[in-house]
Design brief:
Ser/Thr_kinase_AS; six-stranded antiparallel beta sheet; globular; 2 domains; two-stranded antiparallel sheet; alpha+beta; 286 residues; Phosphorylase Kinase, domain 1; Transferase(Phosphotransferase), domain 1; 12 helices; 8 strands; Kinase-like_dom_sf; Tyrosine kinase catalytic domain protein
Length: 286
C-alpha cells in the first residue's frame, strides 16, 4: 500500500466506517467489484477493488504516479479519486458515491432528459483529461456516472492504460467479458494490435459514446459483438445513421458530420476533444 500512497494519493483506510459498508459488492462488472461505503466526514463513497503485483516495483511506481495524477484531476465532469484504502483484504480506490449510477442505466429511466447537454458534459470531461495528458482508454456510457444533482462524471479513466501494462488487474467479477463488451466503442487500430490506447483512440470512443447517448442505442447494435472487429477493420463500417439524429434537421447534420470525423480510420485525421466540444456546443445552439 505504501508504494501507492507515497505520491500523496492519501491512504483513507482509517476513515472507512466499516459498520456502514455494504456486506457484498453492489456492482460486479466492468473493471471490478464495487462496494458502497461510508467515509467518516464525507458520507457515501464507492470503493473499487484492484489487485496489484507487488513484485514489480517499477510498474508499481508508475501506478502511483497515474493514481496521483487522477487524484489531482479537478473538473466538474470528471469523477474524483479521493484516495486509496485497504478493505476486505484488497486495495480499493475511493470515489464519491454516484447516486444515479452509470449513464447507460440512467438514460433507460430518464427518457426525456436533454441528451445533447449530456453529450456536451462528456466531451467537456474528456477534453479536460486530454489537456492534462490523461488517456481514458475505455469510454462508453457505462463508464460515465450521474451524481445526485444530475451532473455527469467521466470515470474509470486511465485504468485501461494501466491494465495494458498488466500491472493492475481488478478482482474478477465472475460475470461477462469486459473486453468483448467494449468492442463496439473501440477504435480500429486497437483491434489490429499495432497501437495502444491513445488520445486519438479516445476520440473514436467519444464519438461512439455521443452516438450512444443521442440515439439511445449502443454502436453497431444490430451486430453480434464478435462481428464488430471484422466489420470495423475490414469493411470500415460505421454506425447506422439513427432516425433520432436524422430527424434533428440542421443540428443532426452538424452532429453526424462531426461523428464521422471522430470515426475516421486514420487516427491523425480525427479531431481533438476540444474541437469535438466546440462542435457539440454548435449543435446545441442550432
Amino acid at each position: 500500500m505504501a508504494h501507492l500512497t507515497n505520491r500523496r494519493c492519501p491512504d483513507l483506510t482509517h476513515l472507512i466506517d466499516t459498520t456502514q459498508c455494504s456486506a457484498v459488492p453492489v456492482s460486479e462488472g466492468g473493471y471490478g467489484d464495487i462496494w458502497k461505503g461510508v467515509l467518516i466526514g464525507q458520507g457515501y463513497v464507492a470503493m473499487k477493488s484492484l489487485r496489484v503485483n507487488n513484485g514489480r516495483g517499477k510498474l508499481n511506481k508508475r501506478i502511483a504516479q497515474e493514481l496521483y495524477a487522477w487524484s489531482k484531476a479537478d473538473h466538474e465532469n470528471v469523477l474524483k479519486l479521493l484516495g486509496l484504502a485497504y478493505y476486505k483484504d484488497s486495495i480499493v480506490m475511493i470515489s464519491p458515491w454516484m447516486q444515479y449510477g452509470s449513464l447507460d442505466a440512467y438514460l433507460e429511466q430518464q427518457l426525456d432528459t436533454n441528451r445533447l447537454h449530456i453529450a456536451i458534459q462528456i466531451a467537456d470531461g474528456i477534453a479536460y483529461l486530454h489537456r492534462i495528458g490523461m488517456v481514458h482508454g475505455d469510454l462508453k456510457a457505462q463508464n460515465v456516472f450521474v451524481s445526485q444533482d444530475g451532473v455527469l462524471k467521466v470515470g474509470d479513466f486511465g485504468l485501461a492504460v494501466l491494465l495494458g501494462e498488466r500491472s493492475i488487474a481488478f478482482l474478477p467479477s465472475g460475470t461477462g467479458n469486459n473486453a468483448l463488451g467494449t468492442t463496439r466503442w473501440m477504435a480500429p487500430e486497437l483491434f489490429m494490435g499495432d497501437s495502444n490506447v491513445s488520445l486519438k483512440s479516445d476520440i473514436y470512443s467519444l464519438g461512439m459514446t455521443i452516438y450512444e447517448v443521442v440515439s439511445g442505442r449502443v454502436p453497431f447494435w444490430e451486430l453480434n459483438p464478435l462481428a464488430v472487429p471484422t466489420a470495423v477493420c475490414f469493411q470500415k463500417k460505421i454506425p447506422t445513421l439513427h432516425h433520432k439524429i436524422e430527424t434533428m434537421g440542421k443540428q443532426g447534420s452538424i452532429l453526424w458530420d462531426m461523428l464521422c470525423k471522430c470515426w475516421d480510420h486514420r487516427p491523425q485525421e480525427r479531431p481533438t476533444a476540444d474541437q469535438v466540444l466546440r462542435e457539440m456546443h454548435k449543435v446545441a445552439s442550432h
